Amino acid sequence: MSERKEFHELVPPERAHEAIASLDLGGETEQVPLQAARGRVLAERIDADIDVPGFDRATMDGYAVRARDTFGADEADPANLELVGAVHAGEEPAVVVEPGTAAEISTGAVMPDGADAVVMVERTDERDGTVAVRTSLAPGDNVMLAGTDVAAGERALGPGTELTAREIGLLSALGRATVPVRERPTVGIISTGDELVRPGGDLDSAAGQIYDVNSYTIAAAVEEAGGEADLYPHAGDDYDEMERILVRAADECDLVLSSGSTSASAVDVIYRVVEQRGELLLHGVAVKPGKPMLIGRLDGSAYVGLPGYPVSALTIFRAFVAPAIREAAGLPEPRTATVRGSMAVEERYDEGRLRLMPVGLVEDGDGGTLVYPVDKGSGATTSLVEADGIVAVDPDTAYLAAGEDVEVRLFSSEVRPPTLFGVGEDDPALSRLLDRVERPRYLGVGSREGVRRLRNGVPDVAVTTAGDPGIDAVDLGGWAREWGLVVPAGNPDDVTGLADLVDRDLRLINRGTDSGLRRSLDDAFAALADERGTGRRDLTDAVDGYDLTVKAHESPARKVAAGSADAGLGLRTTAVKLDLGFVPVGEEAVRVLANPDRADKPGVEGLRRAIETGDDVFGALAGISR
Amino acid sequence: MSERKEFHELVPPERAHEAIASLDLGGETEQVPLQAARGRVLAERIDADIDVPGFDRATMDGYAVRARDTFGADEADPANLELVGAVHAGEEPAVVVEPGTAAEISTGAVMPDGADAVVMVERTDERDGTVAVRTSLAPGDNVMLAGTDVAAGERALGPGTELTAREIGLLSALGRATVPVRERPTVGIISTGDELVRPGGDLDSAAGQIYDVNSYTIAAAVEEAGGEADLYPHAGDDYDEMERILVRAADECDLVLSSGSTSASAVDVIYRVVEQRGELLLHGVAVKPGKPMLIGRLDGSAYVGLPGYPVSALTIFRAFVAPAIREAAGLPEPRTATVRGSMAVEERYDEGRLRLMPVGLVEDGDGGTLVYPVDKGSGATTSLVEADGIVAVDPDTAYLAAGEDVEVRLFSSEVRPPTLFGVGEDDPALSRLLDRVERPRYLGVGSREGVRRLRNGVPDVAVTTAGDPGIDAVDLGGWAREWGLVVPAGNPDDVTGLADLVDRDLRLINRGTDSGLRRSLDDAFAALADERGTGRRDLTDAVDGYDLTVKAHESPARKVAAGSADAGLGLRTTAVKLDLGFVPVGEEAVRVLANPDRADKPGVEGLRRAIETGDDVFGALAGISR
């Protein structure tokens, strides 16, 4: 094996924060056009350099007068003034209001010389060149003096102000076409590893290729934090190529982030480049995830190496790097919402370092919040969307009991927990019905595991084909689905049923034992065994591939389509969708069961209604019926 | 006067919401590149069409083995396997693991045929082509099976999902280079009125021109709501021009918003165009502000006319139009924060329609929130930034008592009330010191009004030059400033002091009676009157322009610079800044006084510290000293 860097001394998380804070991420001033200023942060104080308004302005439609001429006037005894002209908004007055005269004036118009008040049109009568004013006015009535709103020299906005619609309004009033704002730190993102392919590219799975997840995830997170993300070409595990790309990124950006590879060789290469071309401030932080984090400088730029797994990379980015980007961009820490909830299950953890544990939230029947850990490990990208926030577990906390009160930091203040948390059987009709529920979360863990979790009280609903599970639950409705063997198009082997799998040399792809489909298959094998007067196990031992199980309802059929098996356990609707042949074996009932305490939750109610009114969904899928 | 539309029948606000909801604002589907998908909303369900991972993947660095070969192995009795090759991430295995053999494998690499488990390198010893495995493995150990993360056919993300970093991560993993998202409604913004000039353009104040505030404010608010704003050229009050621009905008956009003019003639023209080219659904809503709102259709697009004053336009936009834009863009209502607080002052209002009252917030000494109305009326743009949110006052509520509990809807969930709310004298050193406080709010209402408000308990601090105000307050510190008469450069009239204003034919520009400068001036006139054995009023009556007052500390000097006066009341520092002459009269002490209950507030403490350490500020300003 090649030499590997081992991180024997993990530094405490505070040291990592300090190291990142010591880096220079830019944050100079740039001028941007007013239209592009939204969301940016003022770099300097803006003092008004003009009066707003720039002239004494009428705030009513009416007549500009000398207030003194109206003293004592009322409905019974109006003051009669000679109409000498008119002033409209946007024009220079061509009239002077001498004693005893008045000029028509529009809202927003310049007060003509001589006039010091405006009488609203409703309190006047105009006839034959004379205006009768039926009220007394004081000087300044219905006039906004020049500079009343903002006067030249006044402080208008301070440095550090985040520019939203209203600040942009004030800047417009001051006539600012450009605004000095803090530069956004530029962040170069380098993904490493020979195995990565950009989304949209062709993937050679047999050669172990996977799509690059970290580049796009981290780029989006950089922008959420107020930085500007630049994606650099992939670097393989070659030293010279890596050096060239890292140096180019360091040259062009304030901060270089590397991420993407979990392979030790890529990490080694980066480590060597940073050590030789720059300065490594620390490596290895006592936090889970994130142990192999690197922090340093590279050719005058800041450098942070993120862990390779997407959830780890994003968690570490949010906890350590995002605050530094916001700081450089001048943005305040977001008002991160925190939620208190109780652990839905117990959780053990005993590695003696801070754990940033991703968790999902679900509201229980009493409006309380249950918190459950979401950690599939091993780089699962679905964990990214199955969590709502993080519970920080202290290094000296080895155990969280079920029911224990914890504080969850939501990923953002706009995170809203799902209205419906469902688990259980994976089903094509269900996928479509869930489209009609607002913010559902559904984990296709199979019927058996779904029922187990419903019994344990975490999810709102479980979807099962396994018949009556014998637990207290509210039946929200269901449908039936035709299942059997998915075979190549045209059924070239003339498969007629399960007996062929036992008796002939055919390779099957099966589903796991948590799946409802598998249970139906095993029941059918048991019936066949009864017929033959033997045991089920004797039959299934004779089936090639009986133990080859794959995850989701379409997976066996896709293996058949790819030519790697002769038959796959599956649904008629999948065979139709993938243009494959189908040998029917039976029909199974899909039931949606709700936690009885939560049948009234809006999301649960929404799913019940979706099933009730789902005839269009059932009708559109072959082999699915109510 | 021209004919004017009167809105005699105001419809209730719910009718306006219904009318806007009946309009079609687009919301079709478009494909965007993954890099541009952040913040967008999925238009369709995304089912996985590949397995992730696409192959059985090693999750550890170590050796790929057949688990059966390790059964019973432990530290004392390792299983010795023949090393037959290596598999690295991103390459197709060139080796088959037969019974009794092992292959070196990297994290992320494809499991070679024959192998069903990975032993981590730490539990092995390799020597002379033999790997000693010091532990027993089960099939699947340290292997992530193909499709375990997401399997082809599984539901990955539902329609309506807002795309943040984590959803973008999942889409990357699925290899999606483009994403179907809801179109952003396009919103054409037309500002009307002959008097408007775009920011950056030359302003002819004498002709009543003002900068266009609404276009930029509303454009920013449209984008905050998830729409795409397009600014159209100004339309004057001419029917044909207005028709041409409105029709073009209707042709190009989903929604046309007009705003900008307060002039009745512009409103009349729009009204006629919409009536003749489209359909007016309603005009006049019983809400303050916003009475003259128009809602209709124009050549197949939606049309809304907003009131002319910026605060009114933004308030009505937020209350009525933004929700419709979000709905069309598929965005959820933002988690609008609401805050409860108590009215700091009483407020009367008796117009019998819903009032959306802009308010500012200030934290009192006990951590409670005080709420004060911010409504300068008359189109003041500063009200935009002086408010933190809205209190909706029912049509039948005519009076809110001081201390009454109200609910404030913040402008966004990220709004944070200022850490410091100050009022009082306008001062150049203060402007700079405030830059060192986080999120301060300061209203330059003058010394007298500032002290009055501090006494009433609303602000945290008052800044005054008026000496001891005789109220209970904590003195945070202060400085001195030299004041006098600002005269044209070179002092062409040889002004030597106040006596010249009385005795010679010189025109003065004064400050208002709330200003501390004015008080100092009046004190100096009183001293001069004493000297001459006469009354102060006798002297000031002889001063041309004594009653000509302007708003801020630089304003008189700027009038002098503009040639409209011979002398202005002001500061030495202003004269130096504007390259004008200066005739010193005296020095006044500026004191910063805090509400004694709030001296410990972070913002108050921050200002105290800024004064204490502000020698660089005082030193940089002529005529200012500690």
What does this structure look like?
2 copies of one chain form a homodimer. The first copy, chain A, is α/β, with parallel strands linked by helices. Chain A folds into 5 domains: 13-25 and 185-329, MoaB/Mog-like domain (Molybdenum Cofactor Biosythetic Enzyme, Chain A); 29-52 and 149-182, Molybdopterin biosynthesis moea protein, domain 2 (Alpha-Beta Complex), CATH 3.90.105; 57-144, Beta Complex (Molybdopterin biosynthesis moeA protein, domain 3), CATH 2.170.190; 338-415, Beta-clip; 418-626, 3-Layer(aba) Sandwich (D-Maltodextrin-Binding Protein, domain 2). Chain A is 25% helix and 28% strand. In chain A, strands 29, 30, 31, 32, 33, 34, 35, 36 and 37 form a 9-stranded mixed beta sheet that branches. A 6-stranded mixed beta sheet of chain A has the order 7-4-6-5-9-8, with no helix packed on it. Chain A has a 6-stranded mixed beta sheet with strand order 16-13-17-21-20-18, with helices on both faces. In chain A, helix 3 runs parallel beside helix 6 and helix 4 (239-252) packs across helix 5 (264-277). Chain A is elongated and about 120 Å long. Chain A starts with 12 loop residues before the first helix and ends with a strand. At the A-B interface, strand 11, helix 2, strand 14, strand 15 and helix 3 of A face strand 11, helix 2, strand 14, strand 15 and helix 3 of B.
